[in-house]
Amino acid sequence: xxxxxxxxxxxxxxxxxxxxxxxxxxxxxxxxxxxxxxxxxxxxxxxxxxxxxxxxxxxxxxxxxxxxxxxxxxxxxxxxxxxxxxxxxxxxxxxxxxxxxxxxxxxxxxxxxxxxxxxxxxxxxxxxxxxxxxxxxxxxxxxxxxxxxxxxxxxxxxxxxxxxxxxxxxxxxxxxxxxxxxxxxxxxxxxxxxxxxxxxxx
Length: 202
Description:
The chain contains ten helices and no strands. It is mainly alpha-helical. Among the domains are: 1-78, no CATH class; 157-201, no CATH class.
């Protein structure tokens, strides 16, 4: 019940923020001031940013930030450092979403997206309070996907060797005598084969 009420409260707050954005859009504020107000509200919370982007699909918040800078509004109506932190994160996420861990060329795609994200973040460097922190946060996303992908591959190899060992173990119980005569296996694959074989004997 608590979670439901919290979610409803957040939904109400988001709706209120969208109403504020609508009012600013319709106001007679100077373009730079209007732009700053809208961006600051939209990037005050990721839920608000998502809702604003859904309502204005042709004028995404990230695009608004870019336009604000390109129009020279940053000099007269500067955006807060937190806005650029979110802009950098949103830029990184776009590249992350271009990568599919199920793709046969995942490794190449992930590396390409990693480099593209780094180039993208360079555009925000002059406006970020801590560029290195922003880049480390972004790079971690790609490194995490790579590590998860490699873990899945390793798990798949382990299961395969174990299955093969189990089948051989079931085929002949005499093979069990061999293991006591062999030296310690020198590879993980052999260890898994033995484990599978012994499982088949039970």
